[in-house]
Amino acid sequence: MADPAGAVPHTAPADMPLAGTAPADSTPTGTASADMPAADSRGDRPQGPIFLVGCQRSGTTMLRLVLDSHSRVSCGPETRFLTDMRRIVGRDWERLARFGFPREYWLGRIADFFGGIQADYARSRGKTRWADKTPLYALSIDFLAEVFPDAQFVHVIRDGRDVVVSHRKRFGYWSAVKCVVKWPRYIRVARAAGARLPAGRYHELRYEETVTDPEKAMRGLFEFLGEPWEAGVLDYDGKQHDVAGKYTAEADRRRAAAGTDAPIYGSRVGTYRRELDPFLRVLVRVFSGATLRELGYR
Question: pTM for this one?
Answer without folding.
Answer: 0.81
